[in-house]
Amino acid sequence: MTLHYKKEDIIAAYERVRQRIHKTPVLTSALINEMAETKLYFKCENLQKAGSFKIRGATNAILQLSEDEKKKGVVTHSSGNFAQALALAARDLFVPAYIVMPDNAPRVKVDAVKAYGADIRFCKNTQTERVRAMEEWQQETGATFLHPYDNPHVILGQSSCAYELLNQVSELDNIVSPVGGGGLISGTALTASFFSPNTNVFAAEPKGADDAWHSFNYGKIFPSENPQTIADGLLTSLGEYTFPVIRKLVSDIYTVTDEEIIEAMKIVWTRMKIIIEPSSATSLAVILKHKAQFRDQKTALIISGGNVDLNRLPF
């Protein structure tokens, strides 16, 4: 896929979604700065509607549909944050939403999707089953499939997070964001390339699900096969739209262990008094692991979400 995005696309996406989402705060912690030996700025998408940045992409994608498509609704398959985001965005825009979820999806996420009024069907937790169930439902309803991340309108919606961030903190040296399927990091990298070209964008990934690291370093998409990590939001493979952006515009991808992720998560919970999910903690884990790389610079970390099952905390 060629990179055909323009600066105007990012501004248009932001203008489209900004009235329908929260402008999330940027927090700092003197204590964590001391530990990391640098200046850190936490962009708190854990305080976003539906608990993660995903509402941005879901909202932008729905708003790009025709009136006829909106009437027929939207369908997706997701085990968590995109399911919640699409359900809420669809409800707020009076669009039917059909969500396929794996039968082992966290109860807290299933309950949230139900509360937002979407219809749910369960399937076995394999990519093949998820796609099959989604396609069946799509045929029945005529709904438009919205991919959780590998969709240009979703990517542009996610870019609004970094666009907001760059207007909140000037002259950033670096932005570090988690990478799963790549919607957030590709939107972030696009935004930085247009509006802050001197800012490096780095991706943070769990060692137990390091398909993006392999894809980035070997120049082709490596599928995520049997990933083993506590960061349940980062289990998916890069897609045909996200991969080229990441390969061209991201400076590097760093991996961290689950132990390092848990330690970073604990630090944020105890020092900053905010709830973040394991996937979000990968960014701080990278900073703490590579202090020399980030020392005495201005670095923003995107806290991607805060949807945690309190009955399954890792500490």
Q: What do you see in this structure?
A:
This is Phenylserine dehydratase. It comes from Salinivirga cyanobacteriivorans. Belongs to the serine/threonine dehydratase family. Keywords: Lyase, Pyridoxal phosphate. One of its GO terms (biological process) is D-serine biosynthetic process. Strands 1-2-10-7-8-9 form a 6-stranded mixed beta sheet, with helices on both faces. Strands 5-4-3-6 form a 4-stranded parallel beta sheet, sandwiched between helices. The termini are far apart. The chain is built from 14 helices and 10 strands. Helix 9 links the parallel strand 7 and strand 8. It is α/β, with parallel strands linked by helices. The longest helix is centred in the middle third of the chain and has 17 residues. Helix 1 crosses helix 3. 47% of the residues lie in helices and 15% in strands. 54% of the residues are buried. The protein has 2 domains: 208 residues, 3-Layer(aba) Sandwich (Rossmann fold), CATH 3.40.50; 91 residues, 3-Layer(aba) Sandwich (Rossmann fold), CATH 3.40.50.
- How is the biggest beta sheet arranged? 6 strands, mixed
Strand content: 15-25%
**CATH architecture field of the largest domain:** 3-Layer(aba) Sandwich
**Strand ordering within the main sheet:** 1-2-10-7-8-9
CATH topology value of the largest domain: Rossmann fold
Rg, rounded, reads 18 Å
Number of DSSP-assigned strands: 10
Q: How many structural domains are formed by the residues? A: 2
SSE sequence, one letter per element: HEHEHHEHEHEHEHEHEHHEHHHE
In the CATH hierarchy, what is the class of the largest domain? Alpha Beta
Helix content: 40-55%
How far the N terminus sits from the C terminus, by CA atoms, comes to: 42 Å
Mean of residue pLDDT values: 95
Domain Tryptophan synthase beta chain-like PALP: 18-305
Keywords: Lyase, Pyridoxal phosphate
Protein name: Phenylserine dehydratase
EC number: 4.2.1.-
